[in-house]
């Protein structure tokens, strides 16, 4: 009888976990747009290029940071595999460094960091 109770309890727990499993219910929210990794990389590269162009045209540090921030935020959408995620994290550090340079009004350093970050993000396509 004791073995039957344990077996029945285990079966109920396994069924409950399978029913409420997050992977079984994983889907995109209706209001959230999802992007393929290559599309997300292109969007991030476009946002970085916009920041580079603004800095080269004489943008203020506040304008530069407001252009870099969306690129940092959108880079989180790049989701493919562990190799891509590790390389994305390294490229994202360069974006964050560019952001800190822009906040310090070192726009030349920020522009160089942005150029390096753009190259790194475009190199992610080869890892997909």
Provide a brief overview of the structure:
This protein is mainly α. 74% of the residues lie in helices and 0% in strands.
Name the descriptors.
128 residues; mainly alpha; Four Helix Bundle (Hemerythrin (Met), subunit A); 6 helices; 74% helix; 0% strand; elongated
Written account of the structure:
With 128 residues, the protein is an all-alpha fold. It has one domain: Four Helix Bundle (Hemerythrin (Met), subunit A), CATH 1.20.120. Helix content is 74%, strand content 0%. It has six helices and no strands. The chain has helices at residues 2-19, 22-25, 37-56, 61-74, 82-103, 107-123. Helix 3 (37-56) runs antiparallel to helix 4, helix 4 runs antiparallel to helix 5 (82-103) and helix 5 runs antiparallel to helix 6. The longest helix is centred in the last third of the chain and has 22 residues, at 82-103. The N and C termini lie far apart (54 Å).
């Amino acid at each position: 009888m004791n073995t039957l109770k344990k077996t029945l309890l285990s079966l109920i727990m396994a069924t409950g976990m399978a029913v409420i499993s997050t992977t079984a219910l994983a889907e995109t929210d209706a209001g959230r747009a999802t992007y393929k990794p290559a599309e997300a990389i292109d969007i991030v590269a476009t946002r970085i290029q916009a920041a580079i162009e603004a800095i080269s045209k004489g943008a203020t540090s506040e304008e530069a940071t407001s252009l870099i921030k969306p690129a940092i935020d959108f880079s989180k959408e790049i989701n493919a595999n562990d190799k891509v995620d590790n390389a994305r994290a390294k490229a994202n550090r360069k974006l964050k460094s560019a952001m800190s340079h822009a906040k310090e009004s070192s726009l030349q350093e920020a522009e160089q960091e942005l150029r390096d970050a753009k190259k790194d993000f475009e190199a992610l396509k080869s890892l997909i």
